[in-house]
Predict the structure.
Amino acid sequence: MTKSNYRSIAIYGKGGIGKSTIASNLSAALSLSGAKVMQIGCDPKRDSVSLLCGGLIPSVLDVADRVSDEEILLDRVIKKGFNGILCVESGGPRPGTGCAGRGVAYALELLERNNVFERYEVDFIIYDILGDVVCGGFAQPLKEGFADEVYVVTSGELFSLVQLNNICMSIFALAENGAKCRLKGIINNMRGVPFEKDIVEKIGALMGIEVVSHIPRSETIQKAEKYGKTVIEKFPQSEQAKMYFELAQFIVENRTKYAESFKPLLTSEIRQIISEYSRQEEDGKNN
Ligand code: ADP
Ligand code: MG
């Protein structure tokens, strides 16, 4: 018997914002709750699952160049990581040598064509997707109907908020054109900007998107990274692990709620909000 009632969740955001850290800790937390999880890295950086697998794994695109038998190919690119999490890295061309979306499309079609999600009876698929350029390639998992619940990672810094705006805009455009993806919320992966929670809450409220988690900046992440592990695996009792367990629980429970409309902001409006809060910070210091 196979089943195909899995949920697919996409974590989008600017490069370096903390997508893979969040995706891996989320996968780890979900798997500890008893769910069968598959994490698919869709970023040419190809290090999405390294904290789950203790290092880099061969990407689909790399192996597909050498192996044509799809069963052998699948066996080489689907790796079991922490707590049995199934890990896949789509891979992509070297920077500047072609569309990075090609690897993503190829990998996802390969998995679907071979009924991998059903064969492994997955409950959750976590897609970890770079959103620096929201070109066709990066929108692929959404356009093709692979990922349907979208969370976007940002911080309170200008460039990640501008990218949040761009990503939300393209997700909404896809949904309006019939894709089944839904924008479910913003994850604030904090950088230590003053009034960062307020800034991200304010921007979320103006855009019409819920901020579902404020994840503190914490050295626990780097300490666990030194062992090649997530904080969920290495420091499950830590405050940081608690944040990811809570986020996982929120996502599990948030089956139906999503942003029904989106109001894009101008970069100048985002800049204005940040500078209002940084003036408050200055005023606080001067008083
Ligand atoms: P992305 O996948 O978006 O490119 P990563 O998840 O690889 O970003 O994160 C980049 C780096 O930021 C990681 O090496 C990690 O050490 C660090 N990082 C991410 N989130 C946090 C956090 N909440 N606190 C401290 N460091 C973090
Ligand atoms: Mg990453």
Remarks:
- The first helix runs from residue 19 to 32.
- The two ends are 68 Å apart (CA to CA).
